[in-house]
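Blinded run. Sample ID left blank on purpose so nobody reads anything into the name before looking at the predicted structure. Input follows.
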Amino acid sequence: MTIKNAFTHDEWQRVGSAPFLVAMYVVASSLSGPIGIVREMLAAEKAVTREAAQPDGLPLVKEIEADLVAGTLARDLGVIDGAAEAQARVLRDLDRAVTLVDTKASGVASAFRSWLYSVAGQVARAAREGEHLGGKRVSADERVALQQIAVLLGVSR
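Blinded prediction complete.
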């Protein structure tokens, strides 16, 4: 039995959105212009692909990647605008996704949470903030977002 089979279709959609939710949260915390946003969101996609390609990669991520390739999971989760209510929704959706994994795939939950935090870090480092002015790789706002994600995921920074 695959891990995916432990979830209903709607639950699996929620779980599969988790890496993109952490990306959206980080991206929206410090918008870096159109090119920066694309770089950061692509970093999330690459993180999924990289983990799935590892021989010892998380089986849950391998199944997410397979469904992304098959087109049965969505990458587009809405507008990235940094509005407080949108950011709160993203955190709620992320919390629901990891709670589902905790409940239905507890054997991989801790590793999945740690991996999601690593995705957030990769996204934060993907584009310089204020690049045209010699900006920083990770902005102060992104550091705050990473801390908030770490708390939500229950992982150490």
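Unblinding after everyone has recorded impressions. The chain is about 70% helix and 0% strand.
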